Structure formats: C-alpha cells, structure tokens
Amino acid sequence: MKLAAMASSLANGERAVVVFFISQIIFSAPFSLLHEALSLSILSFFALSVEISAEFSSESLAQFKSRAGASSGILLGAVTLPGLMFSRLIQLLRAVSLHEIDSEELEYLRLQYWATSACCFGVLFFFYFIVPHLPNDNHSISFHSDWSTKFSLSFIALYAAVFCVSFATKFHCGGYTAVMLLWVLCHGLAAVKLIQHVLHTFPACASIGEALLVTTGLVIYFGDMLACTVVKINGYLASSEIVFVQYVIRRSEISTIIQGMLLGLLLFPMFLKFSLQVWECCTSSAHVEHRAYHEIGRTVIFCALLAFIFILIIPSWMQFVQDFPVHPWLWIVNFVFSEPLKRLSLCIYWVVVIYVSVLRFYNISKNSKIERILLRKYYHLMAVSMFLPALIFQSAFLELAFGAALAIFLTLEIIRVWRIWPLGHLVHQFMNAFTDHRDSDLLIVSHFSLLLGFALPIWFSSGFDDRPLAPFAGILSLGIGDTMVRVLVVMSCHFKILAV
User: Fold this and answer.
1) Using CA atoms, how far apart are residues 187 and 182, in angstroms rounded to an integer?
2) CA-CA distance, 488 to 494, in Å (whole number)?
3) CB of 425 within 8 A of CB of 62?
4) 421: pLDDT confidence band, cut at 50, 70 and 90?
5) How many C-beta atoms surround the C-beta of residue 201 within 10 A?
6) Contact 305, 420 (CB under 8 A)
7) What are the pLDDT digits (tens) for 405-417?
8) Please, how many CA atoms are within 13 Å of residue 424, restricted to the half-sphere of its CB?
C-alpha cells in the first residue's frame, strides 16, 4: 500500500508531460546530434532524481525559501531550455541541408546548447551534492542514501564522458577544444552563483524550477552578449586564436536592440545601488535626514543614470556589435516610419486597448469580489486581441514591440522595488490590485511571465522557420488554453459549492 502511494506520488501529471515532451524531441533527432540527444536524456534522468530527492528530503533545500504552495519544478526547469535549444538544433540542421543558412549558425547554436545544458547540470549538481552539506539556520544536514548517490554519480560520469567526447570529435585542435570546454564550464559556474543570489535576494518569489529557468536564461543571454563582443574585438585584432572566431553569425538589428535594452536594464540595479551608496556617503547627515531632499536626490540619480546607460552605454555597444548605419534609436524611428500606416495604427490600437482594459479591470479589482486569478485571465484574452493581428500582419514589428514592452515592465518594476519618488508608491499600489497569493511584495513577476510566454515563441522562430504555427504557441497555450482551463475550473468549483 505504501509502495503504491509512493509510486502514485512520483508519477504525477507534470512529470508525465515533461517525459513525453523530451521523448518526442530525442526520438526525432538525427544521428548527427547523437551526443546532444544522449546529454539531454542524461540531464532529464538526473533532474528527475534530484526532484524526487528534494521531495523526500525537503530540509536539504529549506535554506532557499521558494514560492509558497508551489512544487519544486526542478525537472521542468532543468529540461525546458535545453529541450528548446535541441529542438532548434534539429530545425537548423534541416535548414543547413536545404542551404537556407550557413553551417556557422548551426555550430554556434550547438555551442549554446552545451552551455545551456552545463548551466542546468551545474545547478542540479549544486542542489544534490553541495546544498545538503551546507550549514543552514535549522542546523539540519540531509545525506542521501548510498544507492541514490551512486545512481547520481553514474549520471554525472556519463554526462562528462559524452560532453568531452562531443568536443573532442568536433574540434581537432587540443588548445581550441580546451578553451571551448572552459567557456562552457564557466556558464555552469555562473549559473550556480546566480541562482544562489536570486533565491537569497528574492525569497518566496519563485519555485526552485522557476529560478533555475530564469537563471539559465540570463546566463545564456549574457554569455551570448559577451560572445558577440569578443567576436567584434577579434575582428579588430585580426587574431585567429581568440574564441568564437569560427562562429560569426548574422544577427538582425531587432535582436541586437532587444538584447541591449534588456541586459542594460538587468544590470541597471547594480549601478543604481552603487551610485546611491556613494551619494549617501558623500552627502552630509543633515541633508540626508531631510526626507524631501533625500527622495529628490534618489530620483535625480535614478533618472541621470538611466539616461546615461540608455543614451550612451547601450547604444555604443549596439553600434559596436551590429554596425548600425545610424544611431540605434534613430534606426527604430526609421523602422517604424518605413510603414507608418500599418505600424502607427497598431501602436494606436494597442494604446487604446491597454487604456480601456486596464482602467476597467483596475476598477473591478478594487470594487468586485471576483477572484483575482480569474480577473487576471482577462488580460490573457486582451493580449490575444492585441498580439494576434500584429503577429499575422507585422511580425517583425511585434518582435521589437515585445522588447520595448519588456523594457517598460522592467523599468516600472525597478521604480516600484526601489520606491523611486514620485512614481514608486503609485506603481506599487496599482500592481497590488492584480496580485494574488502567488506573488510577493518584494518582486511581482506575473506580468513578466505573461509577456515572455507570448514573446519567446516569436523570438525563437525568428530567422529560418519551417513550422508556421510555432510563433503562435504562446497565443494558443497562454492566451486561449490556459484561460479556458482556469475559467472551467472556477466554474466547476462554484457549481460544486452551489450543489452543496
């Protein structure tokens, strides 16, 4: 009886869906991606063992305060990005066979796949072997059983063997292979350090799997930015020994602009914290104690630093890696006005829909007893009405608009978290009208999840795409599927209550 209950608890719906998803990807892989398919299989098994171990010995991860009421989600968080990278590899392999793209783009994505896999594997190794031996507030140390440890060590040995064999067969130069291996391993170390920082800085804001997913994405995004910069430096130095010289790929101006904006905003809080500390140290204590002067000073520093980064630093990097014919912000203006009727009409339509919907839903959330989680699903339908026409008729402009919207969300969240006068309190009050038990006052991520759910399938589908429905994945799943399921669940609960 106990074994049956344990088996039913292990075989839940989420794991079944993940296993089906990964199995479909692996079985569709060609022989040329054998090493990547083996690594994805090993990563999936190791992630499953770590998740099960975390459930049966929850005290080992107790020092990381995850989101209340959420499952660990370690398996899903560990295989999502590697699975997407592997799927894209299969797609680009078809493109190379059709001579649609150069082989360099495929090889660079292969390198990114291994970096993504190393990030996830490094974090899993940290959670399974390092965290249980770290002292925490409860002074409880969880040790795994011998068979479980040997089982996990076998996964690590297999993964390391596949990893090294793949690089050894791909790169025949020993020194170059060592540099590439070091580059990939640095991604894994960076992911381990970053997820510790995220979980300790933003407690109860995400589950372990969500934090793993976000951490891996950020490390890969920053690593890609660094790779672009190194490639351009290598071009100026005219040296063949610098890493990534073989992997110069074509990038669109839109992808460079989005990457620059987002990474600039993600790094902005660190510079803001340092600037505010310097300002408070240099300001006399009498002035600091004056609240009005203090708030105005913080606002001035915030605006000046934001303008400096977005007018000088980020555009300079964009110009360096992409060779824009004009200033990047002027390129955006020219891009919008290249088809003014369609694109400006879309902008006006979006502004009207957002204004009417937000005003209406904000009043409902303050004065109605409708559940907030159901109220937030109205925004999913609103997003469908906004993005579906743009995706059909102006997909390139929608890619840029998603980047701009995400930059605005990040800016508003920074203003809210740092309580920047005079908007900090107003933004906090407004956002709290749409939060529920899954959000925290420290960090509100629901709107980011919704926007990224719509944007990522479109961004991943840019360039070569032989699957016409792939860009619509976010709209179909989040905008329609998730909303309808939630509505049906709430309606069934109400009918049960009425029947009782």
Assistant:
1) 9
2) 10
3) no
4) confident
5) 10
6) no
7) 999 999 998 998 8
8) 15
